[in-house]
Write a structure and sequence with these properties.
Elements (H helix, E strand, L loop, with lengths): L4 H16 L6 E10 L9 E4 L9 H15 L4 E2 L7 E22 L26 E22 L5 E11 L4 H12 L9 E8 L11 E4 L14
Parallel strand pairs: 2-3, 2-4
Antiparallel strand pairs: 1-6, 1-7, 4-5, 5-6, 7-8
Length: 234
């Protein structure tokens, strides 16, 4: 899976903030980009998964197809045999690791306490209290960051025409693509169908068990106006 340089830098910046805030983060943030020529109706949303030659007999992909199928079902898609399907759905996915280095503040006391004879009368600690005056230094600390990617491509079976292509990407400390996949799939299809060229950010809260919550929030980015079938995520 190739990543453009600017995309990689943006992902690393997002991942750095994710790592630093991981102690209080209660949601997963995913960037979604869609290209669309969708004109189907609910009545025609039958589909089958399709695989490339190197994806055959792949148990990992089978797992991801089930996750995506659950999300497609929420948008009136019905999985059928390939010969009876109006659409073919293909998946692409990947994970990559990087190291990010962040300057972290470290506080230290250049004047060891106690400070006898300083400050107010009968104040053995002086004007700085029992811990003395603190100075600040910075130490570089490195963190592993993992970028997860899911692509969902929908084509018309009869004509081979691509009608929808959406990519979901997030980054953080999670080293398992399996655990990241439910968030990627839900984000990718959270507002189906998006208009052509739409880019937005989806935030999925974590439930008390650490799984994906049913609540989804989407923050649109600057992009062309969505198609008439698109709706804003709540």
């Amino acid at each position: 899976m190739n990543f453009h340089r600017w995309t990689r830098h943006a992902a690393l910046l997002l991942a750095t903030m994710t790592v630093l805030l991981s102690g209080c983060t209660t949601y997963v943030t995913t960037q979604v980009t869609a290209f669309s020529d969708w004109s189907g109706s609910d009545a025609t949303r039958t589909y089958a998964f399709t695989r490339t030659a190197d994806q055959q007999n792949n148990l990992e992909l089978t797992t991801y197809e089930r996750i995506v199928a659950n999300e497609l079902a929420t948008h009136a898609f019905r999985q059928v045999d390939a010969g009876a399907a109006r659409y073919l759905v293909g998946l692409s996915y990947g994970i990559r690791s990087d190291m990010v280095t962040v300057a972290q503040p470290v506080y230290y006391n250049p004047w060891p306490a106690p400070y006898w004879g300083w400050g107010r009368p009968f104040d053995p600690w002086g004007p700085w209290g029992p811990y003395g005056p603190y100075a600040t230094a910075y130490v570089n600390q490195s963190y592993p960051v993992f970028t997860h990617l899911l692509g969902v491509r929908i084509t018309e079976r009869a004509s081979g025409k691509e009608v929808y292509n959406v990519t979901a990407r997030n980054a953080g400390e999670e080293s398992s693509l399996v655990r990241a996949m439910p968030y990627l799939a839900r984000s990718a299809l959270s507002d189906f169908p998006l208009g052509n060229g739409v880019v937005h950010t989806v935030k999925i809260p974590l439930d008390k068990n650490g799984g994906a919550s049913n609540e989804i929030g989407a923050t649109p980015a600057a992009a062309p106006a969505p198609a008439s079938g698109a709706k804003a995520a709540q």
